[in-house]
Amino acid sequence: MALLEIENLVVEFQTASGPFRAVNGVSMKVHEGEVLAIVGESGSGKSVSMLAAMGLLPWTAKVTADKLTFNGRDLLGMSANERRKIVGKDIAMIFQEPIASLNPCFTVGFQIEEVLRIHMGLDKAGRRKRAIELFEAVGIPDPAERLGHYPHQMSGGQCQRVMIAIAIACNPKLLIADEPTTALDVTIQKQILDLLMRLQAEHKMGLIMITHNMGVVAETADRVVVQYKGRKMEEADVLTLFENPKSNYTRALLAALPDNATGDRLPTISELFVDEGAAQ
What we know:
The protein is an alpha/beta fold. The chain has helices spanning about 45-55, 80-85, 100, 110-120, 125-135, 145, 155-170, 185-205, 215-220, 240-245, 250-255, 270, and strands at about 5-15, 20-30, 35-40, 60-65, 65-70, 75, 90-95, 175-180, 205-210, 225-230, 230-235. The radius of gyration is 19 Å and the shape is globular. Probably part of a binding-protein-dependent transport system y4tOPQRS for a peptide. Probably responsible for energy coupling to the transport system.
């Protein structure tokens, strides 16, 4: 049984000019211990698909699906209270821009201990002990001291490690990482990716990696879903995708990689790809 199973997901937002379909009939699944990459340009509906699955979109968004289940449980049919017991505990998400995702008014220690209080029911001493263990696990130096720091007192890489610690605090079955290396320098990007893959292997979590970076896909993924303008263009195991892509859009993404480009200027996707109309 798949951890997360999505069939024909549609997400619409109301705009001044009428309804806008941000996700259009996307289907995918991820299993325990598997790394699934969702790849595509900005605006292709990658993050919206996962936020819809977690129930984190605003109430004005219209979300429908033929099937949307976690561990066999119907997410769309759940009450808000039932979903809150799962989100943050069994399904966790690392959001883009870690500094913006953390509350500047509270210490990072308070923010991680709040998750442990709500979902694990630990007392004050237990929360602090677990928070220190988590900071150690994600490689934050002097963890006991850092618990008392505010987000602005930490670097971008450290804030990302805090976000990862919060996400894994309750040993989730499924972790969703939304562009986890955005705005980090190359050295820190590698450290964060290595950390995520180590934690995924240790805890046998399902991991969904949302990215536009095909290099990250090649390094981390077992399977890949390619999205474009809210539609799924292709799904394949990572080796097949790179060696024998079926979609013209996937070929365009791969051709735009620096290693595959010729000449002084990289081609744009629009130069390489003509919209295929219907999803593959």
